[in-house]
Design a protein that fits this description.
2 copies of one chain form a homodimer.
Chain A (H helix, E strand, L loop, with lengths): L7 E5 L3 H13 L4 E5 L12 H5 L14 H8 L2 E3 L2 E7 L4 E6 L5 E5 L2 E4 L3 E3 L12 E2 L4 H11 L4 E5 L3 H12 L3 E6 L14 H9 L3 E4 L3 E6 L3 E5 L4 E4 L1 E4 L3 E3 L2 H5 L10 E2 L11 E3 L4 E4 L6 E2 L4 H16 L14 E5 L2 E7 L2 H7 L4 E8 L10 E8 L6 E8 L3 H13 L4 H6 L14 H13 L5 E2 L9 E4 L3 H6 L8 E2 L2 H7 L9 E4 L5 H10 L5 E4 L2 H5 L12
Chain lengths: 557, 557
């Protein structure tokens, strides 16, 4: 056993980053004095599981308590102090001031290395009526218990914010038979995604009875028998209670008071080894500003995966600095399930790239999640954005009824490896009929991107309202009639007839080809382009633009 | 429209590679004369679906006929000649001799570019009795129909060869209520994988009543009311019919007769653009020798995914040579489902690396396919092999009850990108409780590999039969008692007691720590190593070595 003086490692915050750092530290040094300070009563609990306990999908509350102070003592020999708040850092003296929440008693604890992993707190903007106890936020097991209790007698629930947690809550409340209104300031659900990639989710929420109030912000709450959400449009949404999930604010008071450097948006600034501006003080998790792997700029990612790995890296850097690897940066990979539909993103969305003013190209493709001839094939839509100069992937979004997580993970790995659109088209993914296709949708996205770069297809993401444009629907006549393209003056020429009938089109006027999935329209565009037409193909087809359930063929009678 | 003389592109073989080349060629050149020659009656059919039609999981035979000569004419303006065999190539004259199978009539067809995509034929070794019509192989829709017909009255079926197709057939026959014996020369099912990674599959087959005859080759067949497989051990397996799935032989007669260069194992040699030794003759699909992405040496991969992409590349190189990208090489990514269990591989197995004499390290890890606290979490086992010098991943194998395809695809992407074990530990994969874990099993494999490199853990893949070794089972006492480690002299010290009880161990003798999953044993190894013990941890735990269903905890009473 190491006979040198034990290193004193103090960790403020005992959930994802803090608990990961503590566990890793113990594996690296049996001798260290590791103290985990947690204001709340729980450590290392499964915070991503809270909505599912409220909705009854997770039945055992104990399942969420991944560790307890007792198990952490037994397994890891950690000194865990719950119900204890850190209220000050004496950096010169290398000690933190602690206050016992219950008694108010304070004491000082010395450290050799300190980790700040305080997390982030749900936003509660200063709106009229927000102090009503029926306006909930969800962070701790206690918040969860309060909401869980409130659901028993509630009939109508308003969820404010249609991000990941808002969608999970809406789904779980519907599961309990509640009437749910989902209020979102932006004109779409799941704001990190580009709007077209959220249409399927929107449709799925409506099919399950969720009332959507999109493009409408909250301006206050009116108290009565029910609590009424007052929206900026003037709309009023009455509910038995409200869950606010409109974002989080990093808990940086301790860091700021200690004079540690903060980033532009007020998060704790760290280097690639999670060191703050004080080399003996580290920070990790939702409170920090980290490095973006795509933009190579500072970013904020409040997610469990990165928090865990950041915490682990802190322990590595403290106890084995020579072999610690710098944090490569975050992608913000995230996914949500709402009923049968999943949707998610890795890397940057089109709107984020646009806002940053970077050059890019995008395509959207449709396919089945596994071989179409195998029973149970479900639709999936994939959007890919890439750098037109290097071909490097900048981001990907996926939505569908199955296999969304798999494609996001493949693309997150591709992003981590700096892969290009050419690499995607060559990926050799696992294929047997129950699992995939000989050409997976990720390959198809790569093919389509390369075709775009090579000028074989010119994808357009909307049907232009331009009388000179000839909009050609290349689906079979019966399908075109049953599910018409929502646009005036559309010409239907089914693909098999196109070679013979292209004289019906005016070669001096531009053409946009349209189909359900964006594949047949590409085939048609190739036929027309080689006959001298200026032609664009609607990327992602009707599914990605107008109707996420637009059929690719009519049911056989 | 292109006014130059149309290019004459002749393709021999109309399934995966051939049909892909034809379709891509048409998109690139409306003007080309594209002729698809196919000996059989079908083109572009879903050959990976054949077992599932036999077993009734795919109900519509039409679902397997992806395209017909008529649809290929209508959609792609292809000249498709089924029932036509290519019997000779006049390379100097740039023409192929064709024979109509039905009439025997021959003719010559000129080409500017020729593609050989003849595929491979199932092996039928010259064994006594093999000519019996009850000994089937499966390649075409007609083979499928014959086996499908034979199943109606059959009770007992023997499948020879426990590779991908053999396992699919065994599963489907059980689905039909048949008694199945699966015969395999090697001592494991799914020979491309390392044996420990096939234990779960083996167990699953037995649970479903499949009789396994492993480590036993076939020496002939005895004809009678039934057909009896005579095994090398002397064992006799009677069946109503037999399916032979022991491998394939490339159809290279045409190439060889034309004097084209062949590889060491007799496959058609091609360059990175799929050109044979004659620059106007290409080859693609199961008949070629391709480039291995891991070993960077020639290899043979008879799989649908690579075949499709090779065919596509041929068309690119013929019609747009300047923008065609060289084939990056194959990984041999493959997966199979047998009942509830899936298993697969990407890149190289440990035994393949060993046979090549390359340096390597391996770890095996266990986890759930998504967050353990979310209902429906299923076990998954992942084995990772890497280059100890560069850290580059060499191969990965996975097996489990869910999420196997996802992890293989992530690792195939990592292999394609040349990622290292450090990169794996940092992958930011999609996480929400229904989909994954904050630390995915792929991250955990990366962590474990890095820990191995750093000397934090010394994984061992078996319990040594060495009296000086102290085997320490660190599971809870009740679990250790209920599911004992199958080894003599095992000492049970549950992890939480280890720090206090390590004096019970002899520090002068080596220790091997053991648990169900290989995780607690790693924790224990860290505790002991820091107290001066020479300690190794059983990688993958009891699950990966002895019992793939070894429980991680006892059910709560």
């Amino acid at each position: 056993m190491n006979a040198s003086t034990p290193l004193r490692f103090v960790i403020i915050g005992g959930v994802a980053a803090g608990a990961s750092a503590a566990a890793r530290a113990r594996r690296l040094d049996e001798n260290a004095q590791i103290t985990l300070i947690e204001r709340g009563p729980d450590v290392s609990f499964a915070n991503c599981g809270l909505p599912y306990y409220i909705g009854g999908e997770i039945k055992q509350r104990e399942a969420l308590a991944v560790q307890t102070p007792q198990t952490l003592k037994a397994m890891l020999n950690l000194d865990v102090r719950t119900g204890t708040e850190a209220i000050g850092i004496d950096r010169a003296g290398k000690r933190v001031q602690l206050r016992t929440v219950a008694s108010g008693a304070t004491e000082w604890l010395s450290y050799d290395k300190l980790l700040l992993a305080p997390g982030a707190t749900p936003l509660r903007p200063n709106l009229p009526g927000i102090e009503d106890p029926r306006v909930h936020t969800l962070r701790s097991l206690q918040d969860m218990d309060r909401i869980h209790g409130a659901t028993v007698s509630a009939q109508q629930i308003a969820v404010v914010g249609a991000g990941f947690i808002g969608l999970e809550m809406a789904e779980q409340f519907v599961r309990l038979g509640k009437k749910v209104t989902l209020i979102e300031m932006l004109d779409q659900v799941l704001p990190p995604l580009d709007r077209p990639m959220t249409l399927l989710l929107e449709d799925e929420l409506r099919r399950h009875g969720v009332e959507l109030a999109l493009g409408d912000g909250i301006s206050g709450f009116e108290r009565g028998n029910q609590i009424t959400c007052l929206l900026k449009s003037g709309r009023r949404v009455a509910a038995d209670f409200v869950v606010l999930s409109i974002g989080v604010r990093p808990e940086t008071g301790l860091a700021r008071d200690a004079g540690l450097a903060l980033g532009e948006r007020g998060h704790i600034h760290v280097d690639q080894f999670m060191r703050t501006s004080d080399p003996d003080v580290y920070a990790a998790g939702d409170a920090i500003e980290t490095h973006d792997l795509v933009g190579r700029n500072p970013t904020v990612v409040a997610l469990g995966g990165p928090a865990n790995r950041e915490g682990r890296l802190v322990a590595d850097h403290i106890f084995r600095p020579a072999s610690a690897k710098p944090f490569p940066g975050a992608l913000g990979t995230a996914i949500v399930r709402a009923f049968e539909v999943s949707a998610g993103i890795t890397g940057w969305s089109e709107k984020r790239i646009r806002a940053a003013g970077l050059p890019f190209r995008c395509v959207t493709v449709n396919d089945n999640h596994h071989a179409g001839y195998f029973p149970g094939a479900k639709p999936i839509i994939l959007k890919l954005c890439w750098d037109p100069v290097s071909g490097r992937i900048l981001g990907a979004q996926a939505t569908g009824l199955a296999g969304v997580d798999k494609r996001l993970d493949v693309l997150a790995t591709a992003l981590a490896g700096g892969l290009t659109i050419d690499d995607l088209s060559e990926l050799e993914l696992s294929y047997a009929p129950p699992f995939g296709s000989a050409k997976d949708i990720v390959n198809i996205a790569g093919f389509t991107a390369v075709n775009t770069r090579e000028g074989l297809v010119d994808p357009i993401d909307t049907i232009p309202d331009e009388p000179s444009v000839q909009v050609v629907d290349v689906r079979p006549a019966a399908l075109s009639k049953a599910h018409p393209v929502p646009h005036a003056g559309v010409i239907n020429i089914p693909l098999p007839e196109l070679r013979k009938r292209c004289s019906e089109l005016d070669a001096s006027r531009p053409v946009v080809t349209v189909c359900a999935l964006g594949k047949t329209s590409y085939f048609a565009a190739r036929i027309l382009a080689q006959r001298g037409f200026r032609v664009q193909s609607l990327t992602g087809g009707l599914r990605a633009r107008f109707d996420p359930r637009s059929p690719a063929k009519l049911p056989t009678p």
